[in-house]
Each structure stands twice: as structure tokens, then as C-alpha cells.
Amino acid sequence: MSRSLKKGPFIEPKLLKKVEAMNQKGEKKVVRTWSRASTIFPQMVGHTVAVHDGRRHVPIYITENMVGHRLGEFAPTRTFRGHVTKATLAAAAAEAGAGAEAPAAEGKKKEGGNE
């Protein structure tokens, strides 16, 4: 759900103040922030903002195409490790099946019921 036009876009006041101070001085420092919900403003273009993803700060270089988006969009919080294929599932099942048979043969199998 978008924010109302009457309120305008959200940006953390402290973050905006830091960026505008750097623009006046002509500095280019990395600004750390936890505000993932802040909207990227045109004043931020050309700066690097380190956005927290839950465990570390991900440095993001702000370009013109990013204006209007949120900072959190560019710092993913989850690590995608790929989809599992049927071949890897079959190999894992065969490996688990071979490993599970050996301990069962050694000990007595427990049959259901309260003993």
C-alpha cells in the first residue's frame, strides 16, 4: 500500500540531514542507516548508503534510476541458494537411505506402543 500524496514520501530526517550536509561540504562518505523504509531522494544521487539487512550493512551506490524507490529494495534480507532439482533430491534420499539402514541392523527395532 502506498503512502498518501498529502503526507509525501517518507525519509528519516536524520538521514536526509546527513546527506544534505555532505552535499554542502562536497564530501562523499558512506552513510550507515537502519531505515530501510526511507525513500531515495534526488539529493542522495551519487552517494553511497549502507543499508542494514538484518546482520550487516550492504553498501548501495545511489543512481538516478533509484529515485522514488525505497532503500530496503536494494538490500535483500534473505539469501537465495537456488531451487532443488530432482536429481539432487534422489541423491540425497539414496545417501540418507544407505546411512539409515546400518544403525537399524545393529540395534533392536522398536515397534510402536508404550513400553
Structure description:
This protein has 115 residues and is an alpha+beta fold. The protein is built from 2 helices and 3 strands, in the order αβββα. Strand 2 (48-52) and strand 3 (57-61) form a beta hairpin. The protein is elongated and about 75 Å long. The mean pLDDT is 87.
Distance between the termini: 57 Å
Q: Indicate the percent of residues in helices.
A: 25-40%
Radius of gyration: 26 Å
- In the sheet with the most strands, the strands line up as 1-2-3
Overall shape: elongated
Number of E strands:
3
Name the helix and strand elements from N-terminus to C-terminus, one letter apiece: HEEEH
* Beta-strand content: 5-15%
Mean pLDDT: 87
The count of helical stretches stands at: 2
Keywords:
115 residues, alpha+beta, 3-stranded mixed beta sheet, 2 helices
